[in-house]
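[agent] plan:
  1. take the single chain provided in the ticket
  2. run structure prediction with default settings
  3. attach structure tokens to the ticket
  4. add a short note for the reviewer (M.T.)
[agent] executing step 1
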Amino acid sequence: MASLLFEKNSKEQKELITMFSIRRTDLEDSQAVCRIVRKSIIETCVKDHKQDEVVQEEWLKNKTPDNFKNWISAKDNLSLVAVDDTDKPIGFILAKLAMPKAELLLNYIASNHTGRGVGYGLYNELEQALMRRGIDEIITHSTQTAREFYSRMGFSLIGWAADPSGWQAEIPMKKGLTYK
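[agent] step 2 finished; step 3 output follows
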């Protein structure tokens, strides 16, 4: 488990400090991480769904507590959760392992914790865990909202994909993992 203290300075905000820990996700976290992901999609990913209720419903339809239980417990998945000092989940990341690659499937942060290092901490902890397992490449299908984050994390664009309606559904990206 990693413990991180992140400070951010900006012109609009005074110093923000978020203290959080990262641990493996437990089945008991399913409800909370489901809420985080659903709320984050609605509130944070506006650039992607443009507040179109049909697009939101399609995106959210498989984001159920039962599916989260299945994803968390799947042997070929690795999931981590960021928790605050009361052990309340504030972020969630999920990858599917397919040696020697992994696919980053979900990476969402509670809306009131974005921009405070939680996503960075979760991603870096996941990357280290993947490298320990011998994974040498990670791919993801990013949203418009997350594209800049993944670029900062070292991912490269490998194409564009749109659904039949023309909505820019995903942006394929990849990153080679190097051992230090």
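[agent] step 4 note for reviewer: The chain has one domain: 2-176.
[agent] ticket updated
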